[in-house]
Specification:
The chain has helices at residues 79-115, 181-186, and strands at residues 118-121, 125-128, 149-151, 157-175, 189-199, 204-210, 217-238, 246-256. By secondary structure, it is of the alpha+beta class. Strands 1, 2, 3, 4, 5, 6, 7 and 8 form an 8-stranded antiparallel sheet that branches.
């Protein structure tokens, strides 16, 4: 048998593909190279640049341009409206502050009264519209409760004046001739009074003070600034009888420190 040499490989013949028909240049030109493209194309057939520009976002509604609802607002979008609203808000705050300033000040001072300390303050002068012998007005502010101011009738008043204006936070009254329960019942004692508190500017504020018919201190909160005098008018009493004056054992005034 004769040896046979391997045959030389024969290269494959190239397959000729049909050339696609040239696209008709009847579409929009490419914004990058100017090549016309078919209308349905999204990218240029020559440079692959995008043929369709991004859709412009719709203008934001006006309420989206106002803080804190502002989200990605474009420059100038709602700027004038925001300025107008800002001016209106500022004017509204100023107007509200003007209307409610007394209320705000009252709340502020009330908080200070509760958080701050207090100290007793004595009047510089004490007078009464009427008094029985042996029980003058000074006995109501002498610091003890076994003496008393004796009012001969209802509607009698005790006036206490002070040298300097101060913040009056409370008034404490001890009624009756004594703090001993048996002695207390033997005398007449007030059960209702009115406080007329005068400030440095001449304003007079009235506060009704109901009083329990029992011995011991009874306090009413006031919270009034720049007080210069306090007048206590007795309106009602218990245990009244012939020869029994209405007894006020002690009156104490407290200021904020």
């Amino acid at each position: 048998m004769v040896a046979v040499q391997p045959a030389e490989p024969i290269a494959r013949r190239p397959v000729v593909r049909p050339v696609a028909a040239e696209e008709a240049p009847d579409g929009p030109p490419c914004p990058a190279c100017g090549t016309p493209n078919l209308p349905e194309r999204r990218f240029c057939r020559r440079c692959a640049a995008p043929l369709r520009s991004r859709e412009q976002s719709k203008p934001l509604p006006w309420w989206r341009t106002v803080w804190p609802l502002r989200r990605r607002a474009r420059g100038g979008s709602g700027r004038m409206l925001r300025r107008i609203l800002l001016v209106l808000v500022v004017v509204g705050l100023l107007f509200t502050g003007f209307l409610f300033l007394p209320v705000g000040r009252y709340l502020f001072e009330d908080v200070r009264d509760k958080l701050g300390g207090t100290a007793e303050i004595g009047p510089s002068r004490t007078t009464a519209s009427a008094q029985v012998p042996g029980h003058p007005a000074a006995d109501a502010v002498d610091g003890v409760t076994n003496t008393y101011w004796g009012a001969p009738a209802l509607d009698s008043s005790l006036t206490c004046a002070f040298n300097k204006p101060f913040r009056l936070v409370g008034v404490t009254v001890h009624t009756g001739v004594s703090k001993d329960p048996r002695e207390f019942r033997r005398g007449a004692r007030p059960t209702r009074a009115d406080l007329f508190i005068t400030t440095a500017d001449g304003e007079v504020r009235r506060k009704a003070m109901p009083l329990a018919d029992k011995p011991g201190p009874q306090t009413i909160r006031t919270g009034i600034s720049d007080v210069v005098s306090v007048r206590i008018v007795l309106r009602d009493a218990s245990g009244r009888g012939e020869g029994r004056p209405v007894a006020v054992g002690e009156v104490e005034f407290y200021k904020r420190t």
